[in-house]
Design goal:
The chain is mostly helical and 140 residues long. Helices cover 80% and strands 0% of the residues. The protein has one domain. It contains 6 helices and no strands.
């Protein structure tokens, strides 16, 4: 199995754990504060990782376009997390997590529209089936 596929599977596993842990953790505290705590943990974890791997670099030495899009990605991530934790506070994790993962379908559509990626009929069918599955589970 390719390295990227292993990492993608691990990402899915850890994202699943994240949903369960977050649902329990957000129960008795404000969702925005819960998001802040999560963010601090991630910053600390990544600072240690980047430091031990010798990957620190001066921010202004980065390509300007890369930096702008990473900043935009950070804003989108923050907004996603705030909405996700708020939804978890009152909604069932099985449904909230599934709706959150519909971002996969959004990413597929945006990758075609904005990045010019091409999908074959089987891939489009998969995206359609994912959408149908999300609707079947989330609609009452």
């Amino acid at each position: 199995m390719s390295d990227w596929k292993i990492y993608a599977c691990l990402s899915a596993f850890f994202a699943g754990l994240t949903a369960i842990f977050a649902k329990i953790g957000v129960k008795d505290i404000p969702s925005n504060f819960a998001t802040l705590i999560r963010t601090f943990v991630i910053i600390f974890f990544l600072a240690v990782l980047v430091g031990t791997r010798g990957e620190w670099t001066h921010v202004f030495a980065l390509n300007r376009k890369s930096l702008i899009f990473l900043l935009l990605s950070g804003v989108a991530t923050g907004l996603s997390w705030l909405c996700y934790f708020r939804a978890l506070q009152t909604g069932p994790v099985s449904v909230v997590s599934l709706i959150d993962k519909s971002s996969v379908v959004v990413a597929v559509i945006l990758s075609v529209m904005l990045l010019g990626e091409r999908l074959n009929m089987i891939q489009w069918g998969g995206a359609l089936l994912m959408t149908a599955g999300i609707l079947m589970i989330t609609l009452k």
